[in-house]
Design brief:
The protein has 26 helices and 30 strands. By secondary structure, it is an alpha/beta fold. Strands 4, 6, 7, 9, 11 and 12 form a six-stranded mixed β-sheet that branches. It has a six-stranded mixed β-sheet with strand order 20-19-21-25-28-29, with helices on both faces. The protein has a five-stranded mixed β-sheet with strand order 15-14-13-16-17. Helix 6 packs parallel to helix 9. The protein is globular, with a radius of gyration of 28 Å. The termini are far apart.
Length: 834
């Protein structure tokens, strides 16, 4: 029984002379409270504790008084009946238990997963634990994305009630376990019942696991498990106290966790980095080249030529065409070819004749290219597929991954017209070449860059690509068509360490538990310094050169093409001063910045430069009667105002039922603009975050999340613009090499641009942001781009404005990110004549 499990956990927590005060000081009391408690269990414990004055009883009384509502038990998974299936599963379990880590590195088929689901509790738990322990024993660089993803899959497929919770808690609490492995284990524990977790806590404490380490794991389990473990909402203030702001991501502002009972903590999650993007060889796989572009002149002009595609050929000088030996030079041929190559991931064709500059982009600490990395190719009818031959060498570094990535950027007139890369595996010597694993090609293209090289390209393009040192390693490049802007000749590598997810989580939590607008500003300004210091020096200098260019009538535009989805580079403090951003420390106040994910997928997302708005849909909700989600008075007024704003067009008001919203995001009705004014939240597991929808029937009102995973199967025809005015839905994570946040998933299903906030946004200020963005960008007069409208709002967020108490100046102004072309315009349809 769960009551007995609570008693056992309390007894173990206070065993060995540990006082209740010490346990509470180490956060274990708070962590246990965060697990939640059903009414029946609360009443049963209260009755048993009436006559207990021992340390365990004192501890449990504190838990009972502060624990929130318990979550429902996980649904049991149906399993196939029959002796044959059970025998087959047991045989499979014995074979794979002996193989150990090879289960993960060799890959799992659907038949494997079926056998795993059919295993009885003991062998299933034993296999899961063995795999966790073997991965934990690997050196961190060998804990690659594919291995961790496969481990997470195993842990997800094993029934939660079969997992050895005590052993998994012990592993997750170990100081030697890195964040990625801990996250996989925590995700498994979050599916277990409270009773099993409590019994696991008791066993782990008896085995000597420190209470404070267990508290950290339990807190992560609570966050991963969603709102079912949240504590009760605070009561509204009585007379004489100003009410806290209402956020579009949960109840009124909660107290920080250490403040004790009474706060309702919104669902928070840490972005999952997942496996690093990177293609590789596969003899029978051909990448999607996008639409049939045919022949003709491209952006660079010139005579009609057949389309040319990025080419990265390698002469490895080994027995394998995709494996090089450390320290041995190999041949590299880069340029253009007549067709897409199965070993190369790219943005598509390079059209037209004229000079094409190519820049070879590598992590210079792990792969050295002899000679210059920038070359000019002359493309004409006589030479439609020019190439240049180079020599490169894979270097050894202690933290490097067992692969090396070679990127090539293609430019015309300083503007990026194509991006491509190829991944090679690295062997220590010739004897290891044929034993070295080569990652498979993913079989999908990147974004279509054509709209970015039109008549008004961005003033500066920054690219951020994955490096060769794991998830914390990134390679930057900068390009500009303006010769007066100083850009680096080659790429620059930077390491962000393994704390990116923690940095993003802390940023969201600092706003969620806001002590006030002035401390909020100072916190964001401090974070801006950290973000700015993470930008490579020569890239930062390129931005300064752009902003300082004299005679510019408007704020410059910057496009960020990035594989790094988590860090808010818009916040970076690069010590800028400008006529547009004034004294603001934030990069996004001085430049109109649009970000676009370098992500593989079909259909390939297209960042359009304009959207003609002939029709719109406005998504709204009434949260009356839902205690967890307060009524958004300003959001409802905002929805009415946006509907009226587009009244001259076709406007659909969409209620927030699952069926209606899913239809809308599947193209019914088909619209050019979608405006969302709802509650929202972010969850790194994907199941307890997204847009908060409401269903009403005779039984009353109930809410549910519309998650990014549920949206991923939709298809937005017509490439609409989407304004997501809901908490945290701009935050992102990696899922199997792709992005898993709501904003980026909308891009992948067809949106041409998205505006969305990273953290909790105040209802009043968020409504004001929507009004101002549309007032600037949707006008019959010459308007400004969406990114410029957002930039102008960021520029008003200064310490002077905050300390002077100006209304509607809060951290909400810095929350919004623009995903799309930095010159994206909302255009009125042409006037019709009778």
């Amino acid at each position: 029984m769960e009551t007995d499990a609570w008693l056992a956990a309390a007894d173990a927590s206070t065993a060995g002379g540990r006082e209740v005060s010490a346990v509470a000081g180490g956060s274990l009391l708070q962590a246990l409270s965060g697990l939640g408690m059903t009414t029946d269990v609360r009443e049963a414990l209260t009755a048993q504790l009436e006559r207990r004055s021992d340390p365990a009883g004192t501890l449990l009384r504190g838990v009972v008084s502060s624990a929130g509502a318990g979550r429902p038990a996980p649904a049991a998974r149906p399993r196939r009946a029959g002796t044959a299936q059970l025998d087959a599963a047991l045989a499979w379990g014995r074979e794979h238990a002996a193989a150990g880590l090879l289960v993960l590195t060799a890959g799992l088929t659907e038949e494997d997963l079926e056998a795993l689901r059919d295993l009885p509790a003991e062998p299933a738990g034993r296999l899961a634990l063995r795999l966790v322990e073997e991965v934990a024993a690997l050196p961190v660089p060998r804990r690659t994305g594919p291995v961790l993803s496969a481990l997470a899959l195993v842990l997800r497929e094993v029934d939660a009630e079969r997992l050895p919770c005590a052993d998994l808690l012990t592993v997750a609490a170990s100081p030697d376990v890195d964040d990625a492995l801990r996250e996989a284990v925590v995700g498994a524990l979050a599916r277990a019942t409270t009773e099993r977790i409590l019994r696991g806590v008791a066993a782990a404490l008896h085995d000597g696991v420190p209470p404070d380490a267990l508290a950290e794991v339990l807190d992560a389990v609570r966050r991963a498990g969603g709102a079912g473990r949240a504590r009760p909402s605070p009561q509204p203030p009585t007379t004489g106290v100003a009410p806290p702001p209402v956020y579009r991501g949960g109840p009124t502002r909660a107290e920080p966790p250490q403040a004790g009972p009474g706060g309702d903590e919104a669902t928070m999650g840490e972005p999952d980095p997942g496996p690093r993007p990177g293609p590789s060889a596969g003899p029978d796989v051909e990448l999607d080249a996008g639409p049939d572009v045919g022949a003709g002149a491209g952006p660079g002009g010139g005579s009609a030529l057949p389309p040319a595609y990025p080419r990265i050929d390698v002469t490895t000088k080994t027995a394998h065409p995709d494996v090089v030996v450390l320290g041995r030079a190999f041949g590299l041929e880069v340029g253009l070819g007549p067709r897409p190559l199965p070993t190369v991931v790219s943005t598509g064709a390079v059209l037209g004749s004229g000079d094409v500059d190519i820049v070879v982009v590598t992590d210079p600490s792990t792969l050295a290219v002899d000679g210059p990395t920038r070359h000019t190719l002359v493309v004409d009818a006589e030479h439609p597929y020019p190439c240049v031959t180079l020599t490169a060498t894979a270097l050894w570094t202690p933290e490097a991954a067992p692969t090396r990535r070679i990127g090539v950027h293609y430019l015309r007139g300083g503007q990026v017209v194509a991006v491509a890369w190829r991944v090679l595996a690295v062997a220590d010597d010739d004897s290891r070449v044929m034993l070295t694993a080569v990652p498979p090609v993913e079989g999908a293209g990147l974004l279509d860059l054509t709209p970015l090289v039109g008549p008004e390209p961005p003033d500066l393009v920054l690219t951020v690509a994955a490096g060769d040192h794991g998830d914390g390693s990134w390679v930057w490049s900068a390009y500009s068509g303006d010769a007066s802007v100083t850009v680096p000749d080659g790429s620059e590598a930077t390491s962000l360490g393994d704390d990116i997810r923690g940095f993003a989580l802390d940023g969201r939590r600092s706003i969620e538990f806001s002590p006030g607008r002035v401390p909020d500003y100072d916190d964001l300004a401090g974070r801006a310094r950290l973000v700015g210091d993470a930008v490579p020096p020569r890239v930062a200098e390129a931005v300064r050169s752009l902003v300082a260019r004299p005679g510019r009538p408007t704020a410059p535009t910057v496009l960020l093409l990035t594989e790094e989805p988590v860090v808010p580079w818009e916040m970076a403090d690069l010590r800028l001063r400008s006529a547009w951003g004034g004294t603001s420390p934030f990069l996004g106040a001085h430049v109109a910045l649009g970000r676009w994910p370098l992500v593989r997928g079909n259909p390939r997302p297209v960042p359009r430069a304009s959207v003609t708005v002939r029709s719109a849909a406005v998504l709204r909700a009434d949260y009356t009667g839902l205690p967890k989600w307060p009524v958004l008075t300003q959001a409802q007024a905002e929805a009415d105002e946006v509907s009226a704003l587009f009244a001259g067009q076709t406007v659909a008001t969409v209620e927030s039922t699952y069926a209606a919203v899913h239809d809308l995001l599947s193209g019914t009705p088909a619209v050019d603009l979608v405006h969302v004014a709802l509650h929202g939240s972010f969850d790194d597991q994907g199941s307890q975050g997204g847009l908060v929808l409401v269903e009403r029937d005779a039984a009353g009102a109930r809410w549910q999340y519309l998650t990014p995973m549920q949206v991923r199967g939709c298809r937005l025809d017509g490439a609409p613009f989407v304004f997501l005015n809901a908490c945290q839905v701009g935050a992102d994570r990696k899922v199997l090499g792709s992005y898993g946040g709501m904003a980026t998933v909308l891009l992948q299903i067809g949106a041409c641009g998205v505006v969305a906030p990273l953290w909790n946004v105040d209802d009043d200020v968020a409504a004001a942001v929507a009004r101002e963005v549309y007032a600037r960008s949707w006008t019959t007069q010459p308007g400004v781009s969406v990114a410029e409208a957002v930039r102008a709002l960021r520029a008003t967020y200064t310490r002077e404005a905050v300390t002077s108490g100006q209304p509607l100046v809060s951290a909400t102004l810095m929350a919004f990110q623009v995903f799309g072309h930095p010159r994206l315009m909302l255009v009125h349809p042409p006037a019709t004549t009778e």
